[in-house]
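Subgroup meeting minutes
Present: P.N., E.W., G.H.
Scribe: E.W.

1. P.N. recapped why we're keeping a running log of single-chain structure predictions: easier to compare across weeks, and new members can see raw inputs and outputs side by side.
2. G.H. added today's entry (152 aa).
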Amino acid sequence: MGLRQQVTSALKQAMKDKDSARLATLRLINAAIKDQDIARRTADGETDLSDDDIRAIMARMIKQRRESVRAYEEGGRLDLAERESREIEVITEFMPRQLRQDEVARAVDKAISETGASSIRDMGRIMGLLKERHAGQMDFGAIGPMVKDRLG
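Output recorded in log:
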């Protein structure tokens, strides 16, 4: 079953369960997917979002919510931070398993050795390779400093 069908199935189940918080988040996911469908619509009306495209949409949603959580916590709005955290949990259910810190370190080391990187100028190639192989499995904002440390 494709990712789009999983989201739709989960949405229907949330309706049956009358789980309003989960339902709202699933509707947000569906809306983001449909927005991307509309943006990609070709002349013949065909939209082909792959599971990877949908994962990228969800990764952006998670990133936005993490930033919101930080802002809400700094502003003392813990109720809103908690709501955003719950949304992150729902979205994360559809994402691949996140790599552990040791797995991330090994992936970075492997990418550096495979690209033959020797300076910070090679960082773009390393990050590109990591994004290609591990999309949705690691936080690339946190990976950047790790790559810089290894190259510096």
